[in-house]
Amino acid sequence: MEKIIYIIRHAETDLNKRGVVQGRGMNTDINAHGIKQAEAFFETYKDVPFDKIYTSTLKRTHQTVQKFIDRGIPWTQYPGLDEMAWGIYEGMENTEDVKLAYENMMTNWSSGELHLKFDKGESPLEVKERQLEVLEKLIEKNDAKTILLCMHGRAMRLFLCLLTDKPLYEMGNFPHTNTTLYKVKYDGSRFHIIEFNNTDHLIQLCEQD
Known about the structure:
Layout: E1 3-9, H1 14-18, H2 32-45, E2 52-55, H3 59-64, H4 66-69, E3 75-77, H5 96-110, H6 124-139, E4 146-151, H7 153-163, E5 181-186, E6 191-198, H8 203-208
Parallel strand pairs: 1-4, 2-3, 2-4
Antiparallel strand pairs: 1-5, 5-6
Protein name: Histidine phosphatase family protein
Organism: Arcticibacter tournemirensis
GO molecular function: fructose-2,6-bisphosphate 2-phosphatase activity
């Protein structure tokens, strides 16, 4: 059975604005600009007949798609969609030491060292394992033909690798910003990206600014 999945990243939070890593352990709210982003997304896609909504368990995803939830569309929270846990670096100011640690880890992951993680954090391989549950929900045979899925930046990169059968070390090939859209088609056997990093709904915000 064919399905269309609208995968978006949550709207902006104050930590996003400051360039601070959030991660799974930071249950932050979207900020005033994030509310405008969420509104812009809703206005653009409010006529899409979504059958189901999937979000992470973190409230910044709930807040981003709240207007769709308020319409009574069946909504499920999945821990598998939570952001990667960045461990000891979650919520830390973006100092030179933090930047260096982050860049070194990105280099390791890009070279295939996907088992590595920060202290008390998660590795890409561990995130993939919990995302597999959500993948099963996406491909199960039911009446849900059009799904809205709201999640997080790093987790989204990994999830798109999982859906498109790409190695996780290619996660950097999926750019994103707050409320960016990846529209994905499931043809009954495989997933295909039909809209890549779409931010057209944010153009009106840029014009207002």
